[in-house]
Amino acid sequence: ELTKLTPESEPRSTGIEAARCPDVVVAQIDPRKLRKKQTVNISLTGCHPAPEGYSPTLKWQQQQVSHFSAVRQSLNKHRNHWKAQHLDSNVTMPKSEDEEGWKLFCLGEKLYSEAAIAVSSNENLGIDYIKIGFPPFLSIVSRMNQATITSVLEYLINWFGEREFTPELGRWLYALLACLEKPLLPEAHSLIRQLARRCSEVRVLEENKNEEKVSALNLLICLVSRYFDQRDLADEPS
Question: Any signal peptide, and if so, which residues (predicted)?
């Protein structure tokens, strides 16, 4: 299950034959249509460098890429099996264009309505996924097509742009990256770069390099830069 954002610590020998993504997306602009002194802004900014001692080793980064590649292969191989599994009666997946619905689905009422008054607790036994958010179970993510995966990635990255990083968010970001097909569409290419930059911004503010959050942020930067070939965003090994 893709329910935990946990870096893989054991080295694996699998070689990664990742399809290369273009390093630069070229905008086709007709110079005759540009007014004098008009500027075109294309975001080429990189990540904030890791603070001293926060950058992962190259070996660690290679291990994460290897493990992530194995997760993707397994997911593709068994997609039809997981897709055929019946969802529990409490699972209602939102429509692709329902941004608020997806944020509520993935992050739960508690995170989504941070300022909301606590609802009186139910006496139901078991986990209330409506409150805490549905983890990215394989039976759920296997039902999502590429358009939905890209949309949900955008919704969650927008959410992250204004809020703290949480384990619930991290699990979903990892799972959605694992489902993202290569070569990347331009929209997905832009989104994952935005994600890596945001992770680097949040990491700079962390006071303790041993926080689990730092490891999770390092992992997402590593996958964007080294698995999806956005090498200009990669952490220089410590």
Answer: none
